[in-house]
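Checked the freezer inventory, then went back to the computational side. Two predictions to log before the end of the day. The first one is the construct we discussed on Monday; recording sequence and tokens without edits.
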Amino acid sequence: MVWNNNFANRPGGSYNRHSVRRSVILIALSLASLPSCQKEPEERFPPAVDECEQRTCDTDGPTRVPISGGVSGSNEPSPGGTPGTNAGGAPGSDEEPDGGGKLYLRGTVEVATSVDLQTLLELDDMRVRLQAVSPDGTESETSFGAGELFELEISGWPVRVAVHQTTGDPSLMDTIQWVQQGQTVVIAVERNVIQDIADSLTAAPLLDAERGHALITIVDSGGQPRSGASLSVNDGIVGYDIGLLYSDAETQTAERGSAVLVNVPASPPPGTEVDVRARLGGETQTMKLHLAQDSITLQRWQL
């Protein structure tokens, strides 16, 4: 290294090589001790992009799996081939990590505010009761409010879940859906949404509080909506998707593969199963649909 001796030639100046070297070392150590301005990246599991477009995303919240096709739940034939056996399509679950064998349904409830059920909002200034029925008939329930997560111990899959509003203005209709492992959102539907759908039908019926209603999506084996399916019930009004609305002048499902049943005879909650005949491609199946009075059932059937 070539040292600059100009400092030693200045009047009154003196040169000390060891002092200079010590100063350089002290400055280097001081700079090394300063905090870094670069923030370490955080590991996050954000919602899917298409879901972020529908709501305000909180990437620090629970993992969310979008509800596809506008509804949750399915009704697919069992391995034995009996149609009408319910099997899955909604919120999340966990198995106890200590190997205790316990199963839990965990997640959150969000409110559908559009007729295609794609606009979902968080609960606002209200509390709800969540009731779950496992395949063996075991029942469990919990109550919670806005911003809270739920947890229910269950005995197996699929689980029939019903959401009932308990406080605040009665804006939600009781909502029934089938739940399978893997998703974290249970849907509750605004009453006005169901009335808007009914108003779009030719008869424009008022919702009968002593009858039940359903939104059904017909899908193929890949989960894609199927057009050309027709549904029939012994009593009630059947409408089919036409754009974002429904019409009882149509006779089969269209692009969204969706049908609405309005004012179908039903028993009081928790309700019972009714027969719905589904026809597609010349084949007819009788499906089991769980309905309850003054409730909306969200159902997905594979045909």
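The second is the one RB wanted added to the comparison set:
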Amino acid sequence: MTHFTKARFTKMAGAAVLAGTLGAAASAQASQLIFPYIVGSSTVSTVLTVANLTPAAHPGNGDTQLRYAYMYKAGASATDNDAACARTPTFTLSSATNDVQSFDVSGKFGASTRGVLFNDPSVNNDWNTGSQNWAALSGQNLFRAVGFVDNNNDDTGTSYPAPYLYGEAFIFEFGSGAAWGYQALDDKGTGGAIDVTKFYQGHHIPFSFLGAYTRFAFMPTTEFSTRFFVTPIIADMDDVTLQGRVEVYPYVNTDQVAYDRDGNPVGGYVSQTVTCVGGVDIEEMMSGAATTALQNGGWSRLAIVPPSVAAAGTEGTLFAHVIKLEFNKGSTFNGQAMGGTFNNSIVLRNPRGFYVEE
């Protein structure tokens, strides 16, 4: 386990840390979307929506086609947080200026329409032709993935690339009717390579360097499941030969995991390692004694650090995209009976960009 103490960085120092840790920005430039968490199972589908604002006659033909690729874990590896991802080929699929397209990556919905949903006309974007298929992970019953979409613009001049793509993810647990979602991350990059400094500044990606700075609260563990979907951020996100890897754990002070609902610190955190993409429950990051002491909930900071033990084919990083998801374990809320199910998702961000707290 890696321990750090608190420090303060200026914006210039933070930029230097970024450059030294993540490497140079990508040379190829495009308007790119990154979907940091995609999941599929027998009862869950992820529907992605992509709007293409690329103007006509755009370099790279982004007005008529987009490129898609996925890093994914399937089967038993899907729930192994430290397992490496596999990679799909890069798919070039039809599009059109101002077109919007929704599709089920798993193909459970829209199986007869190439994964494309909601009566999408195949006119300006003639998607219903050839061997095109938007359900790229339809052969996987259980998976976690990260998705990349870009408009293949290779013009690095001042006019391009503009933020011509927009995306949303709708994660649908159709077995119970619960759903949650998020906006895709946008970036000036291509093929999974990102312009890391601008990417971090624009999205306030959580990071921990000489401290833990991404604060969060959590509900009672007796009634709520609190899960963190973690996607490590590195300069080339879809390089299957060198994948991002982090250690994560809740931390408020040396050997203390969180504060309880009366402001008392509780000790006993346990670090967890994530490669490529993963999901970590709050209880997995606390000792048994801490879980008992914090069963009514509390607040903490999420430490994100390079793993203390390196692994072949990975790159340790102190940057990650993190979504906190809360959902009910049973049929009570605050001890009172309730019906139905609920999900609540929050994207965790470093609230001050490079200006981390003291």
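For RB: The helical segments are 11-22, 196-203, 288-293. The chain is about 5% helix and 40% strand. Let me know if you want it refolded.
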